[in-house]
Task: structure prediction
Amino acid sequence: MKANRTKLVTIAATIVLVSAFVVLVLNVTQQDGPTARPESPTGEETPGGDGAVDLRRHVADFTAHLDEDGGYRPPTRTERRAVAESVGLLLDGRRAEATERLSTVDFDLRTVTDSATGRRYAEIADRAEDSAAPRGWGRVYVDLGARAGWSVQVPHPVADEATEQLGVRVLRGTPGGVLVLAGAHRDAGKGNSADAAHRRDTVFHAVCDELTRRGLPGLQLHGFARSTAPDFDVIASTGKGDDARGEGRKLANALRDRGFEVCRAWARDCPLEGRTNMQGRSAAEASVPFLHIEFSRDIRTTPTRAAAVTEALATVTSAWAKEPASGD
Result:
């Protein structure tokens, strides 16, 4: 009898403890409420559940297959405009419309989280990248954590070795950036059809043109062989225009302070001044700041030196990030 009574007391105590735990859980849940999904600066909810990626490695995987034989198919005007206008829709906070527009040309829009920084980026990418006949139209990354205020452009990935990795460094370095990345080796197409820096009929140019139309200043990254300018580490130019003359001086000084020799194309004759660069010409026509920067191979492939030039570049991009775009 005593054993039964003890058993009943134990069961009753267990029931009380379980009930108290359930009440506690319910109270905490009601106080905290449902977890809100993150909201982008454009005012739209960004999709949850995206896996984190190391953006540097993610981009390296994309560019790993780019070579002279990698394939390139020139886009039609309609295809170019579809991608460029979708970028504009995304910047306007109309993500659903951008996704629908991109699907008409077999592009995807998704959100990726950079594991190195925790920042979330919209990725616009070609579904045909891994096909037997890639089109080579490139990618776009848009920072979702801040209003878009500037762009970094990489027209010659792989051909200008490691400029794509320098582009990722620059994007990570300052909020509000848009990375425009060409999707083919510059020699992959017929003639110079895949040379994104010197053509107006590419997806790359159409996207850069859309950003220029919105007043976003641009920083374009290139690479040169040491034999081209043996006395310099960097060649800095404002391209066809001179709207970024002040930013160019600021950048050149920041580079000099970090021990780099800079050829300043606005003050002397330099090789590779970028006067025929098409994105620079469009920026000049719109009176939008544009910098054409050439880096030696040693800078691009040495992590400590690449980090130092990224710091210098951030003196310009951080100032651009604080200013309203001239198209606003």
